[in-house]
């Protein structure tokens, strides 16, 4: 088991290295000279020269790649061209907001979606099953940002009971939680539907399995059969989907953060793109990638916990 | 005098698949005495497995019992509520072991968990108010595994099913299914998926434990050879009907139905040494397109015109020996010789 986890974790390194190289080469995709692109048309040659030197843009490409990787390894992601703050501290400030939003919405969505799907499968003849299917189709069909706008209209404008903007006062858990409700719902609602449908399908398969018949033949209580014996088998596909879906979730978080004006990674990246603040864009994408890779790692590991048949070695 | 444990009469069951209706069991009547082994044999698709599932009322949703009764210790199981089935019958007095042990155990739970869950349910219904702990059930599970001949049960109980071979899994199933409280064991092709050598071991285990606990067995198989060793009585089924039923030595010694005779001739034996074994021409008809008259007539080497028209009733042709063939009278004592 431990061997499997370590082996799986080591695979993170080449993945991240690949991403770093791609991020690095993005500087070459910017039209024209990166420094003047970042500084805008009114930059003086002195400023451009200074920036070129600071970012090692005047050196040969392999050297620059070396500098870049070395910097990342030391935790130095450069400084914001715009504000002069260190990129790492900007990210450290933004990350908790995004992490909280993503974890809350995904966690709650997974819990509700999986239980709803299981319930719909167990009651396959009742209208609940059909209801779940329709509701989940709706949830899947409505994009995050549309859901965000609709929720905002409904709960901030029509019935103003929830705050529309910001992440809440730091250090006030209740205020933070209240500010989290709408963004997390907007981001997670599609997942509820998706996971409910996925779980319902795999649950229907599992409920017909021989080992479920065995459990019934031995009078295991029906609720235990459904929510223990069957669900543990039926939840396996959902784990994969959640792991792979974190990328999509982070993408959705960008929109939601912008709409609700939450100071997270997504908003940071988008603002940096508008401002051509290239080090911040690079750093932000790097952090987003790390989140994605870690989520996949977590999914693979939890896979092994749920399904003992996974090869550990 | 022997006491009946299970009396099935006129059990008739349909599978409703869309607009197709398949009669999987047609007026099945038989008796199983306490402590006896009744072997049910026939080719695939004869309704053998359906019979076991119908007794425990574990049928798929498309199945519908049309008529008949299943008396167990005098009580009609078909009239019991689901709760009564769970509290008194399933896993308590009547247990079942299944065809493919590879699929019959839950792949993501330890053997210990699956066994203790079952033991806990049995304990709950059999000794209400018992204060057994997790540890006690674990110990009981280990004892059951030991009884079924699993080496090192202390360690093995913590394994997952995928760490067991097919034969070992079937041993685990037997450990779950057989205890002193079991009156009736339904074995549905319990050894079909296993190697021949393992098959013999498992069958010996079943017979030994059942004899010890006084458990009756309804042993469903398509392997007649197995039945010759374990069954007291034999029931031959074809396309949802009973074709022949009687004491094992009578059915094997002087089969009264041409189908039984053909099944026996298709078995390798001392007499058949060096000869080509019989293969019955054709195959079991789909249950929604049964031939008219005797459903076996298109494949029967002895069929006459009347077999095409009349459904043969199951008749007692000798003391305790029943057969459903129109030609029996005419044939007299002459044997059904296929080859």
Q: What does this 3D model show about the protein?
A:
The complex is a heterodimer of chains A (313) and B (339). By secondary structure, chain A is an all-alpha fold. Chain A is built from 14 helices and no strands. The relative contact order of chain A is 0.14. The mean pLDDT of chain A is 79. Chain B contains 13 helices and twelve strands. In chain B, the strands form two sheets. An eight-stranded mixed sheet of chain B has the order 6-7-8-3-9-10-12-11, sandwiched between helices. Chain B has a four-stranded antiparallel sheet with strand order 2-1-4-5, covered by helices on one side. The radius of gyration of chain B is 21 Å and the shape is globular. The two termini of chain B are 41 Å apart. Classes of the chains: A mainly alpha (313), B alpha/beta (339). Chain A binds chain B through residues 209-211, 213-221, 224, 229, 232-233, 306-309, and chain B through 56, 58, 85-87, 89-92, 95-96, 98, 100, 103-109, 117-118, 121, 125, 160, 162, 173, 176.
Number of strands of chain B: 12
Inertia-based shape of chain A? globular
By secondary-structure content and strand pairing, the structural class of chain A works out as mainly alpha
Count of helical regions of chain B: 13
Contiguous runs where pLDDT drops below 50 for at least 5 residues of chain A: none
> Which oligomerization state do the chains in this entry correspond to?
heterodimer
Order of helix and strand elements from N to C terminus of chain B: EEEHEEHEHHHHHEHEHEEHHHEEH
Proportion of residues in β-strands of chain B: 15-25%
């Amino acid at each position: 088991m431990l061997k499997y986890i370590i082996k799986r974790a080591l695979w993170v390194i080449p993945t991240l290295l690949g991403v770093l190289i791609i991020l690095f080469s993005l500087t070459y995709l910017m039209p024209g000279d990166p420094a003047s692109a970042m500084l805008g048309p009114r930059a003086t040659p002195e400023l451009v020269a200074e920036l070129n030197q600071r970012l090692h843009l005047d050196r040969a490409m392999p050297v620059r790649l070396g500098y870049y990787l070395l910097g990342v390894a030391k935790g130095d992601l450069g400084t914001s061209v715009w504000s002069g703050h260190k990129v790492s501290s900007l990210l450290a400030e933004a990350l908790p907001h995004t992490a909280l939003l993503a974890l809350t919405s995904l966690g709650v969505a997974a819990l509700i979606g999986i239980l709803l799907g299981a319930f719909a499968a167990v009651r396959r003849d009742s209208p609940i099953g059909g209801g779940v299917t329709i509701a989940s189709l709706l949830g899947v069909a409505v994009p995050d940002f549309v859901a965000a706008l609709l929720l905002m209209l409904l709960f901030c404008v029509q019935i103003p009971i929830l705050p529309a903007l910001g992440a809440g006062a730091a250090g006030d858990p209740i205020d933070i939680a209240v500010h989290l409700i709408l963004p997390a719902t907007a981001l997670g609602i599609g997942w509820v539907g998706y996971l409910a449908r996925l779980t319902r399908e795999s649950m229907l398969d599992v409920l017909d399995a021989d080992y479920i018949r065995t459990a019934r033949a031995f009078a295991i209580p029906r609720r235990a059969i459904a929510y223990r014996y069957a669900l543990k088998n039926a939840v396996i596909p959902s784990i994969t989907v959640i792991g792979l879906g974190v990328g999509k979730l982070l993408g959705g978080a960008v929109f939601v953060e912008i709409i609700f004006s939450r100071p997270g990674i997504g908003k940071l990246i988008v603002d940096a793109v508008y401002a051509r603040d290239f080090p911040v864009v690079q750093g932000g994408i790097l952090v987003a990638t790390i989140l994605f890779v870690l989520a996949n790692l977590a999914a693979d590991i939890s896979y092994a916990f749920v399904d003992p048949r996974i090869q550990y070695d | 005098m022997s006491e009946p444990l299970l009396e099935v009469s006129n059990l008739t069951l349909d599978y409703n698949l869309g607009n197709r209706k398949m009669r999987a069991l047609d007026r099945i009547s038989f008796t199983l005495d306490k402590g006896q082994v009744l072997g049910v044999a026939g080719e695939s698709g004869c309704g053998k497995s359906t019979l076991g599932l119908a007794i425990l009322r574990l049928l798929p949703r498309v199945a519908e019992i049309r008529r008949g009764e299943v008396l167990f210790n005098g009580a009609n199981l078909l009239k019991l509520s689901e709760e009564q089935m769970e509290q008194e019958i399933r896993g308590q007095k009547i247990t079942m072991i299944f065809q493919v042990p590879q699929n019959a155990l839950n792949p993501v739970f330890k053997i210990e968990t699956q066994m203790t869950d079952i033991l806990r349910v049995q304990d709950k219904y059999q000794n209400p108010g018992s204060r057994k702990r997790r540890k006690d059930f674990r110990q009981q599970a280990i004892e059951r595994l030991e009884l079924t001949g699993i080496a090192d049960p202390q360690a093995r109980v913590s394994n997952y099913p995928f760490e067991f071979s097919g034969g070992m899994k079937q041993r685990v199933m037997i450990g779950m299914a057989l205890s002193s409280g079991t009156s009736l064991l339904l074995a549905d092709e319990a050894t079909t998926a296993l190697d021949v050598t393992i098959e013999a071991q498992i069958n010996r285990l079943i017979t030994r434990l059942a004899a010890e606990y006084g458990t009756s067995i309804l042993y469903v198989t398509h392997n007649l050879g197995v039945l010759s060793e374990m069954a007291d009585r034999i029931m031959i089924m074809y396309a949802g009907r009973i074709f022949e039923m009687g004491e094992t030595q009578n059915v094997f010694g002087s089969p009264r139905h041409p189908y039984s005779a053909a099944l026996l001739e298709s078995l390798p034996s001392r007499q058949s040494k060096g000869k080509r074994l019989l293969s019955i021409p054709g195959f079991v008809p789909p249950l929604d397109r049964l031939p008219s008259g005797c459903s076996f007539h298109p494949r029967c080497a002895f069929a006459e015109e009347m077999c095409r028209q009349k459904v043969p009733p199951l008749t007692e042709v000798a003391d305790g020996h029943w057969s459903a063939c129109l030609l029996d009278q005419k044939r007299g004592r002459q044997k059904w010789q296929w080859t």
